[in-house]
Design a protein that fits this description.
The protein has 190 residues and is mainly alpha-helical. The chain has one domain. 53% of the residues lie in helices and 8% in strands. The radius of gyration is 18 Å and the shape is globular. The two termini are 34 Å apart.
């Protein structure tokens, strides 16, 4: 079943991706580094390995024993925030994780307690779905996806250029309609 987003959310996401590129003096189709965006938004980024000295056993567990257990998190202190990213992950995954965390900030999602009263993780589905949509849109804008499709650029080469995984690239090519546009134009001229 398709996810339901509030009216206009996908268009708003495309606008965020475009607007932040403009603010960073990039073209609408240029790659957007989540580290550069975090710096622009004045959100410090700290790697998980930075905590090794004081929390060696926990960091070792998260970086080696159970890498899938922790990807990234936004940590709040008063009105400030910082992002902690698991730097044992591939650069592409770190970019996706960072973009996801930045999406929560951009969308104005309020900080929540990480666990509810019963000890279960407290991540409202609607907020996670929104961050899961905007995060990849920040990495690969609609304009980028259309440009990639129209120029027939291989998705692996495009993913490498945009610093994302092939899966994220494929998702953006599909979700923006870029692949359908390309298929229609090929049929029209064949």
């Amino acid at each position: 079943m398709a996810k339901k987003y509030r009216h206009g959310f996908k268009k708003e996401s495309d606008e965020y991706a475009r607007d932040y590129r403009v603010e960073l003096r990039l073209e609408p189709y240029d790659p957007l580094s989540p580290w550069r965006l975090a710096e622009h938004l004045e959100i410090p980024v700290v790697t998980l390995s930075a905590f090794e000295e004081k929390h060696a056993e926990s960091v070792y567990h998260l970086m080696h024993t159970d890498q899938k257990c922790f990807s990234a998190a936004t940590v709040f202190y008063g009105t400030k925030r910082l992002i902690v990213v698991n730097n044992s992950h591939s650069p592409e995954r770190q970019a996706a994780n960072m973009s996801h965390e930045l999406a929560h900030t951009i969308l104005g999602h309020e900080p929540l307690e990480p666990f509810d009263e019963s000890g279960c993780r407290n991540f409202p589905k609607v907020l996670e779905d929104e961050a899961n949509w905007l995060g990849p849109a920040l990495l690969v804008s609609k304009e980028a996806a259309w440009r990639i499709a129209s120029k027939g650029i291989d998705k692996r080469a495009a993913a490498a250029h945009y610093g994302c995984s092939v899966e994220v690239m494929q998702m953006r090519l599909n979700m923006t309609g870029a692949m359908k546009l390309l298929q229609r134009s090929r049929k029209k001229y064949s």
